[in-house]
Write a structure and sequence with these properties.
- This protein is mainly alpha-helical and 508 residues long.
- The chain has helices at residues 12-34, 36-42, 47-62, 65-75, 77-97, 101-129, 135-163, 168-171, 173-187, 200-219, 234-254, 269-298, 304-309, 312-329, 334-355, 362-377, 380-388, 396-429, 453-481, 497-507; strands at 227-229, 232-233.
Length: 508
């Protein structure tokens, strides 16, 4: 039953309407990775600038999530979702109409803000409308949508890039956004709201800290890890970012009002561990796409569509297994399911790095990609369900915001780190010190044009070595999920008096 309603209603139609928007966000992310070489050519940009197209989006997505989850509690998940969907759709139109890389990066920032408004509301609606023992099945739909998006996004993106141009990877969001808006307006229930204060200082500290850290990491190789301008250096920005983020955490602990992050939620062991794990997953999902797509298009000579077709085994297996894994999530210990996913993921990346060579038969590349599908199926639904199962109802939005924030922080750091590592490995491997057709400022032709034969081996080595970074980071996530405990049988609970009193007292 939706809170505030007087008769039982099925929560499934509302969930289907919400996951359409979630699907669009995921498709948008995967489409951009496939279109990277075409955008480089079309906007006369280098690889680092194009990576900023993704990093700017992810940064704008990650920073507001702590607030937008709380805004959903305050003003209702439905209202926030509809506002975010409208902003995302309009920003997609703007992306397609841009004529420079700088304009595209700016438009992607607004896309990220729209996605930030939408994402926590989906998890909050699941938590607040589905009984605890049915949430696994609801989250399995979420996981299946993620699997299908990994298939549809790259293939659709490749087809659009090959036929109509890279601009259409953004234009396609407009009709989907309109349909999603109409469905959500009709089907998503109006849920009970809870008053909150908003920690504006926390927002500023988290945003500034994340920007300094991401900019320093991503631009490090560009400035040879030295001086950027005057007293500003790469390491100075990175250290400043860490210090500001430490100040943010200190402020959250000392804030006597209503902090941006309710640290009391981390008393739940599984919630804390799930946030660690999803951070590593977000990092690795984002980081692996760049070297894989660049290798496929520039070494193997595949078109964007052909490159995307490499992901078909992953998407089919992930989408097929996700509903079954979702039903198991409601019955089995979360350690078993998430352990399979977080072990299969780094194993598949290690395997992929070993076979990503210029002359490897394609079937040998598809095998580790198929294992990626198994990993995806055993990660998304079990992790999301385990993270939110014990959250009190009045903090569902805040908990969903934190969980999605940590995932996006991982994605931001993954995008920045893989950019820096790829440039480093290219500089080390290529005979010209990394200056091969666009990796040090000159645009490289996208589509199906291959690198010269003498560069294919060194370039493959650089991309293979880059894929080892997300594999190593995932081992941290594996260690976290192996420490999960059996979830509380009560599941998420309504706000108890002891949960309400401190906040109420603070507002008096």
């Amino acid at each position: 039953m939706a809170l505030g309603d007087h008769k039982p209603v099925s929560p499934w139609p509302a969930l289907w309407a919400l996951v359409l928007g979630f699907f669009m966000i995921l498709v948008d992310s995967t489409i951009v990775s496939v279109a990277m070489p075409a955008i480089m050519e079309g906007l006369d940009a280098d690889v680092n600038a194009v990576v900023w197209v993704t990093s700017a989006y992810l940064l704008a997505y990650a920073v507001p999530l702590l607030v937008t989850g709380r805004l959903g509690d305050r003003f209702g998940p439905k209202n926030l979702y509809l506002g975010g969907l409208a902003l995302f759709t309009l920003a997609s139109l703007w992306c397609g109409l841009t004529g420079s890389i700088e304009q595209l990066i700016t438009a992607r920032v607004f896309q990220g803000l729209g996605a930030a408004l939408m994402t926590p509301q989906t998890m909050a609606v699941i938590t607040r409308t589905f009984p605890a023992d049915q949430r696994g099945r609801a989250m399995s739909l979420w996981g299946a949508v993620a699997g299908i998006a990994t298939l549809v996004g790259p293939i659709l993106g490749g087809t659009l890039v090959d036929t109509l141009g890279w601009e259409w990877i953004f234009f396609i969001n407009v009709p989907v956004g309109i349909v999603g808006f109409v469905l959500a307006a009709r089907l998503v229930p109006v849920l009970e709201t809870h008053p909150h204060r908003f920690d504006l200082l926390g927002v500023v500290l988290s945003g500034v800290g994340m920007f300094l850290l991401v900019f320093g990491i991503q631009e490090g190789q560009t400035y040879d890890w030295g001086t950027i301008n005057g007293p500003i250096s790469v390491w100075g920005l990175i250290i400043a970012g860490v210090v500001v983020l430490a100040g943010f955490l200190y402020w959250q602990a000392r804030n006597t009002g209503e902090p941006l992050i309710p640290l009391s939620l981390f008393r739940d062991r599984n919630f804390s561990l799930a946030n660690v794990a999803i951070t590593t997953v977000g990092f690795s999902i984002t980081a692996m796409a760049f070297p894989l797509m660049l290798w496929a298009q520039l070494v193997r000579g595949y078109s964007p569509t052909q490159s995307a077709l490499l992901l078909v085994p992953m998407a089919l297996i992930s989408g097929g297994l996700a509903p079954w894994v979702g039903t198991l999530t409601d019955r089995l210990h979360p350690r078993r399911l998430t352990g399979i996913g977080l072990a299969a993921f780094p194993a598949s990346l290690l395997w992929l790095s070993l076979v990503a060579n210029p002359d490897t038969p394609v079937w040998q590349v598809l095998l580790p990609i198929a294992l990626l599908g198994v990993a995806n199926a055993f990660m998304w639904a079990p992790l999301g369900t385990t993270a939110t199962r014990n959250l009190p109802m009045h903090q569902a939005g805040a908990g969903a915001g934190i969980y999605n924030t940590t995932r996006q922080i991982g994605a931001v750091l993954g995008s920045a780190s893989i950019s820096a590592l790829m440039e480093n490995r290219l500089a080390a491997q290529l005979p010209s010190g990394g200056d091969a057709g666009g990796f040090s400022g000159e645009p490289m032709a996208g589509g199906s044009e291959r690198l010269p034969d003498f560069l294919q081996g060194p370039f493959s080595d650089a991309m293979s070595q880059s894929m080892l970074l997300p594999a190593a980071v995932l081992l941290i996530g594996l260690a976290a999920v192996l420490c999960f405990t059996a979830p509380s049988p009560r599941g998420a609970r309504p706000a108890a008096p002891q949960d309400r009193e401190p906040a109420a007292a603070q507002r008096k």
